[in-house]
Amino acid sequence: MSSARRRLCIERGRTSWQRQVEHPAYRYFIFSSDQAVPIKIGPAAIDSSVEAFNVFRRCALNYLATTPTDTSDYPDKIVLMWSTVHGMAQLIANGNLVYDGDELDWVESMLALYLQG
């Protein structure tokens, strides 16, 4: 079961990255515009009205629940996964990060590496 949940998290991250790179107006809207909606992070919880984030968060929570990860670490782990996907999308879309290969596969391998342990 944990393997299927892990795979789902990777797929969610991959899909999110692809949407960000292929739709720069969307990326700008959620991260740079005056309309951006914050993701509020506390020591034990994350709160957001950004549905794309909430889908990813639920997926990550389902996966993390199958691991020995302490629940107090969940918010940090989720933010690390989210930040990796969106940071890479921003850097690649802006030409600051150039990868000699399939970028989508690279993002997927980064998430798989992170979720290994």
General description of the model:
The chain is mostly helical and 117 residues long. 66% of the residues lie in helices and 5% in strands. A two-stranded antiparallel sheet has the order 1-2. Strand 1 and strand 2 (46-48) form a beta hairpin. The protein is globular, with a radius of gyration of 14 Å. The mean pLDDT is 82.
Helix/strand layout:
Blueprint: H1 2-22, H2 24-31, E1 39-41, E2 46-48, H3 51-64, H4 74-93, H5 103-116
Antiparallel strand pairs: 1-2
User: What do the pLDDT scores average to?
Assistant: 82
Number of strands: 2
Order of helices and strands: HHEEHHH
Helix content class: 55-70%
Strand content: 5-15%
* Distance between the ends: 16 Å
Spatially, the strands of the biggest sheet line up as 1-2
Class of secondary structure makeup? mainly alpha
Number of helices: 5
Largest sheet: 2 strands, antiparallel
| Parts with pLDDT < 50 across at least 5 consecutive residues | none
**Looking at the structure, what is the overall shape?**
globular
